[in-house]
Specification:
This protein is mostly helical. It has helices spanning 4-28, 34-60, 70-86, 90-114, 120-140. The protein is 80% helix and 0% strand. Helix 1 packs antiparallel against helix 2 (34-60) and helix 4 runs antiparallel to helix 5 (120-140).
Length: 144
Protein backbone atom coordinates (compact mmCIF):
# COMPACT_ATOMS: atom_id res chain seq x y z
CA UNK A 1 0.00 0.00 0.00
CA UNK A 2 1.21 3.50 -0.88
CA UNK A 3 1.96 5.82 2.01
CA UNK A 4 -0.13 8.95 2.41
CA UNK A 5 2.84 11.29 1.99
CA UNK A 6 3.31 9.98 -1.56
CA UNK A 7 -0.33 10.64 -2.41
CA UNK A 8 -0.30 14.10 -0.83
CA UNK A 9 2.88 15.13 -2.66
CA UNK A 10 1.57 13.86 -6.00
CA UNK A 11 -1.71 15.73 -5.47
CA UNK A 12 0.06 19.00 -4.66
CA UNK A 13 2.25 18.65 -7.75
CA UNK A 14 -0.86 17.92 -9.81
CA UNK A 15 -2.57 21.08 -8.53
CA UNK A 16 0.62 23.07 -9.19
CA UNK A 17 0.98 21.89 -12.77
CA UNK A 18 -2.68 22.72 -13.45
CA UNK A 19 -2.24 26.17 -11.90
CA UNK A 20 0.73 26.82 -14.17
CA UNK A 21 -1.22 25.84 -17.29
CA UNK A 22 -4.15 28.05 -16.25
CA UNK A 23 -1.86 31.00 -15.53
CA UNK A 24 -0.08 30.71 -18.87
CA UNK A 25 -3.42 30.45 -20.67
CA UNK A 26 -4.60 33.65 -18.95
CA UNK A 27 -1.71 35.71 -20.34
CA UNK A 28 -0.97 34.16 -23.75
CA UNK A 29 -3.32 36.38 -25.74
CA UNK A 30 -1.67 39.49 -24.23
CA UNK A 31 1.80 38.54 -25.51
CA UNK A 32 3.05 40.41 -28.57
CA UNK A 33 6.64 39.09 -28.82
CA UNK A 34 6.66 35.85 -30.82
CA UNK A 35 9.64 34.40 -28.92
CA UNK A 36 7.96 35.02 -25.56
CA UNK A 37 4.75 33.48 -26.84
CA UNK A 38 6.67 30.42 -28.03
CA UNK A 39 8.51 30.17 -24.68
CA UNK A 40 5.23 30.24 -22.76
CA UNK A 41 3.57 27.72 -25.08
CA UNK A 42 6.56 25.37 -24.70
CA UNK A 43 6.40 25.67 -20.92
CA UNK A 44 2.66 25.06 -20.98
CA UNK A 45 3.27 21.85 -22.96
CA UNK A 46 5.92 20.75 -20.42
CA UNK A 47 3.46 21.34 -17.57
CA UNK A 48 0.72 19.43 -19.42
CA UNK A 49 3.05 16.50 -20.11
CA UNK A 50 4.10 16.40 -16.48
CA UNK A 51 0.43 16.65 -15.49
CA UNK A 52 -0.27 13.53 -17.55
CA UNK A 53 2.57 11.71 -15.73
CA UNK A 54 1.12 12.86 -12.42
CA UNK A 55 -2.34 11.59 -13.37
CA UNK A 56 -0.86 8.17 -14.20
CA UNK A 57 0.94 8.03 -10.86
CA UNK A 58 -2.19 9.07 -9.00
CA UNK A 59 -4.19 6.35 -10.78
CA UNK A 60 -1.49 3.78 -9.93
CA UNK A 61 -1.76 4.86 -6.30
CA UNK A 62 -5.59 4.72 -6.41
CA UNK A 63 -5.86 8.44 -5.66
CA UNK A 64 -7.84 11.21 -7.28
CA UNK A 65 -6.30 14.24 -8.93
CA UNK A 66 -6.31 17.62 -7.23
CA UNK A 67 -7.33 20.94 -8.73
CA UNK A 68 -5.91 24.26 -7.55
CA UNK A 69 -8.04 25.85 -4.85
CA UNK A 70 -10.73 28.25 -5.96
CA UNK A 71 -9.06 30.93 -3.84
CA UNK A 72 -5.69 30.49 -5.59
CA UNK A 73 -7.30 30.57 -9.03
CA UNK A 74 -9.41 33.61 -8.17
CA UNK A 75 -6.49 35.56 -6.71
CA UNK A 76 -4.34 34.75 -9.73
CA UNK A 77 -7.07 35.80 -12.14
CA UNK A 78 -7.66 39.08 -10.29
CA UNK A 79 -3.94 39.94 -10.10
CA UNK A 80 -3.42 39.09 -13.75
CA UNK A 81 -6.34 41.14 -15.00
CA UNK A 82 -5.59 44.09 -12.76
CA UNK A 83 -1.91 44.27 -13.75
CA UNK A 84 -2.57 43.71 -17.45
CA UNK A 85 -5.37 46.28 -17.30
CA UNK A 86 -2.88 48.88 -16.10
CA UNK A 87 0.00 47.83 -18.38
CA UNK A 88 -0.69 45.31 -21.12
CA UNK A 89 2.94 44.65 -22.03
CA UNK A 90 5.23 41.67 -22.43
CA UNK A 91 7.20 42.88 -19.40
CA UNK A 92 4.03 42.69 -17.30
CA UNK A 93 3.34 39.17 -18.56
CA UNK A 94 6.92 38.14 -17.72
CA UNK A 95 6.56 39.70 -14.27
CA UNK A 96 3.29 37.88 -13.57
CA UNK A 97 4.59 34.50 -14.70
CA UNK A 98 7.87 35.00 -12.80
CA UNK A 99 5.85 35.68 -9.64
CA UNK A 100 3.87 32.50 -10.30
CA UNK A 101 7.07 30.49 -10.76
CA UNK A 102 8.45 31.85 -7.50
CA UNK A 103 5.28 30.91 -5.61
CA UNK A 104 5.21 27.48 -7.22
CA UNK A 105 8.85 26.72 -6.43
CA UNK A 106 8.44 27.84 -2.83
CA UNK A 107 5.27 25.76 -2.38
CA UNK A 108 6.77 22.66 -3.96
CA UNK A 109 9.83 22.78 -1.70
CA UNK A 110 7.51 23.22 1.30
CA UNK A 111 5.50 20.15 0.24
CA UNK A 112 8.64 18.06 -0.29
CA UNK A 113 9.73 18.95 3.25
CA UNK A 114 6.24 18.35 4.64
CA UNK A 115 5.81 14.96 2.95
CA UNK A 116 9.28 13.57 3.64
CA UNK A 117 8.27 9.92 3.50
CA UNK A 118 6.82 10.16 -0.01
CA UNK A 119 8.39 7.58 -2.28
CA UNK A 120 11.22 8.31 -4.69
CA UNK A 121 8.97 8.60 -7.77
CA UNK A 122 6.91 11.34 -6.09
CA UNK A 123 10.05 13.23 -5.08
CA UNK A 124 11.52 12.91 -8.57
CA UNK A 125 8.42 14.24 -10.31
CA UNK A 126 8.23 17.10 -7.81
CA UNK A 127 11.87 17.95 -8.54
CA UNK A 128 11.09 17.80 -12.26
CA UNK A 129 8.24 20.29 -11.80
CA UNK A 130 10.53 22.57 -9.79
CA UNK A 131 13.09 22.35 -12.60
CA UNK A 132 10.48 23.36 -15.20
CA UNK A 133 9.49 26.34 -13.05
CA UNK A 134 13.11 27.39 -12.49
CA UNK A 135 13.87 27.14 -16.21
CA UNK A 136 10.85 29.26 -17.13
CA UNK A 137 11.73 31.85 -14.49
CA UNK A 138 15.30 32.04 -15.83
CA UNK A 139 14.15 32.31 -19.46
CA UNK A 140 11.75 35.14 -18.59
CA UNK A 141 14.49 37.41 -17.21
CA UNK A 142 15.18 39.07 -20.54
CA UNK A 143 11.54 40.16 -20.81
CA UNK A 144 11.33 41.85 -17.40
Amino acid sequence: MTNQDTIHLLKECDAGSKMAVTSIDEVLESVSDSELKQLLQKSKEHHETLGNELHSLLIQNKAEEKDPTLMAKSMSWMKTNMKLGMDNSDATVADLITDGCNMGIKSLYRYMNQYKTADESAHKICEKLISIEEELRRDLRKYL
